[in-house]
Design goal:
This protein is mainly α. The protein has helices at residues 8-14, 32-43; strands at residues 21-22, 66-67. Helices cover 25% and strands 5% of the residues.
Length: 75
């Protein structure tokens, strides 16, 4: 998979459906203020770096443990 440009909205809609954190990565530990600061930066047009996606072949998906991103949140 080469470089693809997609919107933040698209990424968010795919969390815990198509996108998960691999268990080789630490668990999702951001608090509410950090999430708000990230979205504030996005809305102001500040650069936020990039996301790295690791695609697993269907036959290997059951071999890897994953973490879910935050499902329910309140401000």
């Amino acid at each position: 998979m080469g470089y693809q440009s997609i919107t933040i909205s698209t990424v968010i809609s795919r969390l815990n459906i198509q996108y998960f954190l691999p268990a080789i990565q630490r668990e999702f530990v951001w608090d509410t203020d950090q999430i708000v600061q990230l979205f504030d930066s996005i809305m102001r047009g500040y650069p936020i770096s990039s996301f790295l996606f690791w695609e697993l072949k269907p036959e290997n998906r059951e071999k890897w443990e994953v973490y879910r991103f935050i499902d329910h949140w309140t401000l």
